[in-house]
Amino acid sequence: MKKSLILTLFFLLTTPSLYAAEVVALMRYDVGPYHRVLEGFQKGCNCTVEKLIVPPKEDPALWQKIRGSHPSMILAVGEAAFTRAVKYAGDIPVVHTFVSYPWQIIPENKTNIMGVPLLVPPEVTLARFLKISPWSKRIGLVYDPEESTRMVNEIRIAAGKLGMELVALELKDPREAPDLFWSLAGKVDAYWMLPDPTVFSPASVEILVDFSKENRIPIITFNDSFVLKGALMALSTQDFEMGLQAGKMANKLLAGFPMKEIPRLFARKTVLSFNKRIAAIMGVTPSKTMLAEAGNVIYLFENF
After folding, report:
1. How far apart (Å, rounded) are the C-alpha atoms in residues 117 and 236?
2. Are 14 and 79 contained in the same domain?
């Protein structure tokens, strides 16, 4: 109890004055990607911002101080900060970014929350993949309905618009994942790897990569770390760009627009990560046009 009190007092005493800021920017970690998000936000939003690193443990007294400072808005960067904001922000509008599945955190009765998801829209990812592998028409994936149903539905709609079919297999027990991966052999042309915590562990990723190489079924994923492990490609967002779009949303809110009238935005610029060694195994040769259209930064991983 004494240690907890000291911790609370420490954060209250060391927290900068929040009263002058229109926006309190919350983040759990003071690291490079979050810094770039905040830089983008400040460029997109014509507002004063106060950065605050939230403590590891929940601290109601700190949140009482934040609410008492009456900010016009809270920017939550990352899942940890966003989860706390949802719980403690009350009626203060919250704009989130760097969160993969915000809809899994937001209660149905909360109408004061919006933001820019971490993931690239499915239609953008599929369109880019078709430029690499135009003969791929059947996309497979394994998912936990309690974790990823909304994302799977969005992928299904996007696939249908592009003339593709989604083969989605449900699982409840992580131990089912290997058998479900292998059951897709001969039924799909590519595998979409979701950030689903029930499906993926270090061991299951290794099994999926083995399945991919043996059956020549390329993996589409959401993070370049998995491209290093053996996925064919990832299309990910730029940190600065996510912050910039969140800042534009914030400008609208501060100008008095109702949240329901503000369009939901995704990060517009993406980074393509591509594994050349896996491409050779899959018989895929990216065109110069595709590489040129990728823009920004292209990582060509020779090994994994």
Report:
1. 11
2. yes
Q: Is the dihedral of CA 110, 113, 119, 121 positive or negative?
A: positive
Per-residue model confidence as pLDDT tens digits over 26-55: 998 888 889 999 999 999 998 999 999 988
- Together in a domain, 213 and 290: yes
Cα–Cα distance, 1 to 293 (Å, whole number): 57
What are the pLDDT digits (tens) for 248-282?
999 999 999 988 888 777 777 788 888 888 988 99
Q: Are 26 and 52 in contact (CB under 8 A)?
A: yes
| Domain count along the chain | 2
Distance between first and last Cα of the chain: 48
Alpha-carbon span 148 to 125, nearest angstrom: 17
The phi, psi pair for 275, rounded to 5°, reads -100, 110
Is-contact 132 233, C-beta < 8 A?
yes
Residue environment code for 227-236, b if the CB has 16+ CB neighbours within 10 A, otherwise e: bebbbbbbbb
Full domain range(s) for residue 274: 122-237+269-301
Q: What is the Cα–Cα distance from 28 to 47, expressed in whole angstroms?
A: 22
